[in-house]
């Protein structure tokens, strides 16, 4: 049985993260100031969300940087798994922020307050431009890296939310119905939850070593069973070591050399009783295969 892997080097997004954090941090300050001046909950709600996005970008940035660190004898996978934890924590932080925003919006229904519509329209319009520009920085990696996808979804959702705030400002200017402000805030919460739930679900699945959603385990199993000499298999495990890398272990039953079976049984028993390692997957490398693994830095576990 074998599990061969290569050392994948994810694209560097340091510049994108730096630009995104700086732009959104400046915009958060602008939104808070003008939100207080205009007494707009929708504007302040969007500022709170943007602040959570700044923290999420910092988390994703830190995780991305740590993932490039080399593995050690004690951290055999390096720090790649922190990208999974970062995307999960980012989703949790956002959901908590949305709960606070929803509560404040419900309170505002009981006591509607007049707001400066022109301020809302201008500031939210600036936000739509900034959030769209930031989202575009991460769009290329959003299909291949859950950590980058988290950053992209946050920014893309923000762009849509800012457009919603602009619409609220226009409607209030026309109608003087100030209850529109908390209504838009509730809509913001619903929209962001819809875009965040998938990130939370996928991050949680990877955190508990579920099979990544882009992998069909039944197809992998069928392929392995079709290999020459394989009569059966068991203990098939497929999991993510990071938001970009996938690992696999499996026991293939190939009735060939009984001496190898005895060697593997003895080795596994020793690992279990002396090192408390209860699930070991071992490959026996011989000749050309062993030399290839050394030269290309590709190994089998």
If you had to describe this structure to a student in words, what would you say it looks like?
There is one protein chain. Helix 2 runs antiparallel to helix 3. The N terminus and C terminus are likely disordered. Strand 2 and strand 3 form a beta hairpin. With 301 residues, the protein is mostly helical. It folds into 2 domains: 200 residues, Alpha-lytic protease prodomain-like (Up-down Bundle), CATH 1.20.1510.10; 46 residues, no CATH class. The protein has 9 helices and 4 strands; from the N terminus they run E-H-H-H-H-H-H-H-E-E-H-H-E. The longest helix is centred in the middle third of the chain and has 30 residues. It has a two-stranded antiparallel ribbon. Helix content is 65%, strand content 7%.
Q: What separation lies between the terminal Cα atoms?
A: 9 Å
Number of helices: 9
Helix content: 55-70%
Write down the overall mean pLDDT.
78
Number of strands: 4
What is the CATH architecture assignment of the largest domain?
Answer: Up-down Bundle
Structural class, from helix and strand content?
A: mainly alpha
Order of helices and strands: EHHHHHHHEEHHE
What is the strand content? 5-15%
- Biggest sheet overview: 2 strands, antiparallel
The count of domains is: 2
Name of the CATH homologous superfamily of the largest domain: Cation efflux protein transmembrane domain
CATH topology of the largest domain: Alpha-lytic protease prodomain-like
Radius of gyration, whole Å: 26 Å
Strand order of the largest sheet: 1-4
Shape: elongated
Q: Quick one: CATH class of the largest domain?
A: Mainly Alpha
Low-confidence residue ranges? 1-7, 296-301
């Amino acid at each position: 049985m074998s599990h061969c892997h290569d050392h994948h080097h994810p694209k560097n997004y340091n510049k994108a993260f730096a630009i995104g954090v700086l732009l959104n941090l400046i915009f958060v300050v602008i939104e808070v100031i003008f939100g207080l001046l205009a007494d707009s909950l929708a504007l302040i709600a969007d500022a709170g969300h943007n602040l959570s996005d700044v923290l999420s970008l910092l988390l994703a940035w830190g995780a991305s940087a740590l993932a490039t660190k080399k593995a050690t004898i004690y951290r055999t996978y390096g720090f790649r798994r922190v990208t999974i934890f970062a995307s999960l924590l980012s989703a949790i932080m956002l959901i908590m922020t949305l709960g606070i925003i929803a509560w404040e919006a419900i309170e505002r229904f009981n006591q509607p307050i007049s707001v400066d519509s022109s301020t809302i329209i201008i500031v939210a319009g600036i936000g739509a431009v900034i959030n769209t520009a930031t989202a575009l920085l991460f769009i290329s990696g959003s299909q291949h890296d859950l950590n980058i996808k988290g950053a992209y979804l946050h920014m893309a959702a923000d762009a849509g939310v800012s457009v919603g705030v602009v619409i609220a400002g226009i409607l209030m200017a026309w109608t003087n119905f100030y209850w529109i402000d908390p209504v838009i805030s509730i809509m913001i919460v619903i929209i962001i939850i819809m875009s965040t739930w998938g990130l939370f679900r996928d991050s949680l699945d990877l955190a508990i070593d579920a099979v990544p959603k882009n992998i069909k385990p039944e197809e992998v199993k069928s392929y392995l069973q079709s290999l020459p000499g394989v009569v059966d298999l068991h203990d098939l495990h497929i999991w993510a070591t990071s938001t970009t890398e996938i690992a696999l272990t499996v026991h293939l039953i190939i009735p060939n050399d009984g001496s190898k079976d005895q060697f593997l049984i003895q080795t596994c028993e020793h690992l279990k009783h002396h090192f408390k390692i209860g699930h070991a997957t071992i490959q026996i490398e011989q000749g050309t295969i062993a030399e290839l693994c050394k030269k290309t830095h590709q190994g089998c576990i």
